[in-house]
Amino acid sequence: MVTVSPSATAQASIERSPRRLAGDGLALGYGAVPVVRGVSVELRPGRVTALVGPNGSGKSTLLRGLARLHPVSDGSVVLGGAEGDGEEPVASLSARDFARQVTLFAQSRLAPQGLSVREVVSFGRHPYRRRFAGMSAQDRDAVERALELTGVRAMADRAAGELSGGELQRVWLAACVAQETGVVLLDEPTNHLDLRYQVETLDLIRDLADEHGVAVGVVLHDLDHAARVADELMLMASGRVLAAGAPLDVLTADHIQNAYGVAVDVSVDERTGHLRIDPVSRHSRR
Fold it and tell me: Using an 8 Å Cβ cutoff, are 258 and 235 in contact?
C-alpha cells in the first residue's frame, strides 16, 4: 500500500495547548422531538473517543452540540485544560476564541467554486487572522503542514470545484488540520473515501492524538474502524449511551445486537489482536 510520508516541515511540532472538552447530562433535539437524552461525554488530550451506533441514534447531533452548532436544551458543555484547570462553559467563549480551540469536520460541505485547494485549506486559519489581514508566515506553514499530512499537496493548485467527492472530503479535512486546535471533532471522516484513504485518515486521527496531544471525538459507522482507532468507545442507541469504555468491553455480541437489532459473531484475530465483527444474515446461516 502507498502511504503518505510527511516532510520534516509537516512533522514539526504543531503549536496546540492540550484541551479537554466535556459534556454533562446533555439533551438535544429538533423542535419538540428529543434526539439525545442525558448523555455525558469527555474528550481528553491524547485520546480518541469514537461514537458509534445505528442511524438516528444521536451521534452526529451530539457532536454538533459539543461544537456549538446545535442548541443544548439541557446539560452543560465545558472546555478546559488537560487536568480540567481553567474550565469554562463553551457558551461564554467568543466564536473566534472557540474556533481557536475546537474544530469540527462536518459530513456535508459544499464544493467551493473559483478557489484552489490551497485556498480552501487556508480557511482553517481564519480564526487567527486579523480582519482584512493577509496570511502570516505561521498561517502559511500551518497550511503546508496540513496539505502534507492529509496527502493533498499534489492537488494544492487544482480548482476545488473540479474534485471528486472523496478528494474534496480530504481537502476539508486538511482545512480542519490547518486550524491547529487542541480538540478535533470528526463526523464520519472516512465516508466516501476509498480503502487507501480510509486507512490513512484513521492513521492521521491516531497521529493527532499520539503525536500532538489532540483530544479527538469521531463519529464512525464502521465498527471495525472504530475498534482500531479509538481508545474509548461510546455505543449509542435511541439517543442514550448503551455502553461506554474500551472497544473490547463495548463491542460485544450482546451490546451490538441490542443496539442494531442484528445478531453478530465477535472474535479477536490471534495474529493482530483486532476485533472482528461478522453480522449473521439469513444467507450466512447456510
Answer: no
Kind of pairing, strands 74-80 and 88-89? antiparallel
The whole-angstrom distance between residue 129's C-alpha and the CA centroid of its chain comes to 24
How far from chain centre, in Å, is Cα 264?
A: 26
Per DSSP, helices labelled H in 132-164 are 137-149
Q: What is the pLDDT of residue 134?
A: 80
- List 27's β-bridge partners, or say none: 74
Max intra-chain CA distance, the chain: 66
Distance (Å, whole) CA 181 – CA 147: 16
Rounded to whole angstroms, the Cα distance separating 227 from 220 reads 10
How far apart are the C-alpha atoms of 144 and 122, rounded to whole Å? 9
Segments of the chain scoring below 70 in pLDDT? 1-16, 84, 132, 284-286
> Under a CB-based contact definition with an 8 Å cutoff, are residues 253 and 274 in contact?
no
Please list the residues that pair with 88 across neighbouring strands.
Answer: 79
Cell of residue 234, nine digits: 461510546
